Amino acid sequence: MTPAGALCAQRGDASKPNNSFFLGLGPLYAGEYSQALEFYDRGASTALVTANGRWVDSICYATMKGECYYQMGANAKALEQYNAAVLLYIQHSDWLMRISTDTVLAIGPVTNDRRASITWGPSARTTAIGKFPDTMLSLQGNSAAENKRVVNQGGTLMAQQYHPVRVTEIARCLALAISRRRQLLGPMGESDPLNKNLITALQRRSAPPNHWLGVFVEMQLGLAYATAGKLQEAIPAIQRNLTIGGQYDHPLTAIGLIELGRLALEQKNLEAAETYFTEATFPAIAFDQYDVAAEAFVELGSVQLVSKPKFISKQLVTAAAWRNFGKYDVLKASVMIALAEHYSSNGDVVKAGAALNEARRAMTRNDISKGRLGARYAYQLALMEYQRGNLIAGSAALRDAVAIQRNASPRIFQTILTNEWFAAGALTERSAQLLYDNLLREPTDSDWATDPLDTITYQLNPNGVALERWFYSALERKQPELALEIADRIRRIRYFATLPLGGREMALRWILNSPETSLSTDARLQRQDLLTKYPILKTSLDRAAEIQKALKQLPAQAVDKDQFFDQEKLLQELAQTTSVMETKLGEVALRRDRSSFLFPPLMTTKELRERLPEKQVVLAFFNSSGGVFAFLFTKQDYVYWKVENPAALKKETVELFRSLGLLKKDGPIDVDTLEDDAWKANSAKLLTTLMPTLKPTFFDDYEELVIVPDGPLWYVPFEMLHMEDGAGGSIALTEKIRIRYAPLASLSVPEVNQRRRPLLSAIVSGRLYVRDEPETTDYYYQQLSPAFANSARLDKKTPGPTSLLGKTWDNLVVMDDMEDIENLPYGWSLAQIDKGKPGSELGSWFPLPLATPQAVYLPGFHTAAEESLKRGGNGDEIFSAVMGTFSGGTQTLALSRWHSAGDAAIRMTAGIGARIEGMPASQAWQEAIAEIRDSPLDIAHEPRVRVLGELKPPAKASHPFFWADMMLIDTGIVPIDEDLP
Question: What is the pTM of this model?
Fold first, then answer.
């Protein structure tokens, strides 16, 4: 015997890690993650500890604990363990140099190749499975000379001795830890200091010279390069070290093949990715790495669905029949869930259900259903239930999937981690901005194709901290134009988060049912792909269009029973057609089909400014936790500033509302309040706070001001704010310039170039004020009716939900006190006449066919402004009303901030409606305001005005209570003179 061999014989079984370590693999592969974690926690106490701390065998325990956490979706805890494994290697990066190689035989093939049992092969690679020693000896301790120095100079005496070490297992665990860190860190890997230190340590290539152990180090280095985004170095390094001597696969081979597959997928090389994932299954099974095999099958099934959408994977079908699943429940469940999606994608719901049932059986009595794989199962179950038409069960399963994925999502975790690194100063401004640009991006085609569940979950989980820091990073880098774009993106993200599936269904509706002329070439191709792949959508859309056409032939409100029954029958058929489309849409939304988010549009500041008319100026605000920012821009120039005192801004807004008498919802407004002009000074003060450097002549060169409010600024009536007139007096903004509002900067310019000619204007004739008499309602209707083309009065029971009936209306005027708008964001009734009934809610207008009236007037809308923000107010009720209504195609929305509830509100509405077809909406509004301000006050029809004692009401409706309550949100369509050539 050699000295090392003799010592090993004397010591018996003292291997590091010892045999107890492998006891955790059984429960890990069975999905019993909690039990496996207990094994590794206990086993870690048996790891080798020297005077210098834990040795490299602890890499195994840290990595496998990380695996348990990772599979359970506990990303932070998993990364902590993988970091610990990497740190141990960096501390002992020369550990392989201590391995005694004098007793190690050359690598040869195994005598029992487990690949022989595989049913989905054979492998296209011609390599053999290498036979590796279970343990190798590592010389630990100090040499005689080193101990002599300790005696003379101090330190720890350590006698040299050999320890049997499971080298290949330590190397495999380190490789797995490095690979997992790349998955968890994603784009953050390029900035990760720990990975940089790891690369430095691995580049020393500390391994016995000319020995196959060097292959392990080179493989680990390739994986670390991949984490750092150095793909030109990573890919060749991994490829070169998949085998030993070009002949034998080793325990790191499967990990390397999976990494190459992921890299190929990122580079959109689907054929190569499929090959790598397939090949990874063979060495994974050969080396009993059933968790790696499970991941390879998941990745394989995913890439095949993208590259061969009508192809049912032969590998998955044959793997599902493999008899060696045994207790490897994770592998079985992974294969069955992946196979279920293939069957589902090909329309075979029966086989998909059978595969999911097999997966469910493999997931009982363990932790699988609570972790990553459980989220995938619930997602596929939701998809199958939608495919069956079972929306309730599908929605319940989807909620379960998203709830688990919120914790397991790598992208959500990366966003949180970026926030932490940024706050700690671990990222430069540029690095932080690049990370936020990546993580907070719009969903890409690749996102939908590779991981629709994570994409939907991320859309439903806006990270406010990250969004604001993304914005701040642009300002700190002196990029205000980019900051404006980011502010618009943030508003879009907030809106998407209020919608089912994070706006995915809405995106599909816009692709499928927007006007053809408004679609880009790519959007048209997406529409074509969807209608070809899902012909039932085309059939149903065509039928819905026919029903809508038939409904338009009937009066808006039936005049006899026959018409009522005809409407009712058509609406029932439209409801059924809509149900068919929406059921299919729910299924499609969970699939891997691409869909751009057409609404609201996304533009760069450059694109937006190019589309602005010469005489237009946009004032966009962004309300953040760090203050209020303002961006003022025209076609030629832009400027931005920070509102210095946000607290004063709110205080001044409240003071303005109080000076208007807005103290209580629908409360009385005394005559003496209407005679008091204190509001002028308050409004001027507020405008100075918002625009501190505004000069009296600034607006002289412009015709229209578009305001993009945010947060509580939605309540501010800019049209009544006073500015200096240059002659020692003051003037209201509405007298200086036309004003309109837009929910996003991108919606300040129109997507279509002209309005539809209105064929039907529906006027809901209810009680604008709670105590209005029928005579008052009739009087108001007579004022409104002539102002709107082809008007029809709705004051009786409708034959079906207004969300369906209203898809035939061009204009909608709701003359009613809207008391249900607290049901945010989309649970309040838009048309009010069927309020409280199914199908009346704003959210019920969303389903196909995509259609809301092009102009909507809501003079009975309520906001927090009418109580001077006494109960708070963040603008959500206005923003959600605007976005919810505009999402169906509406171009103009006029609503009241406070409910003046009388004749002035009716005349204001009529004044806009009568003019809007022949001029820009902002001009129509400006003229309507001027008309109201100069018109007599009809005190008999202003129920909120209270006359006490001998006081007389004002002669005119010049007080802003009567004309500044309404706000006009409009996209800026300029009517085209059809007589011009």
Answer: 0.92
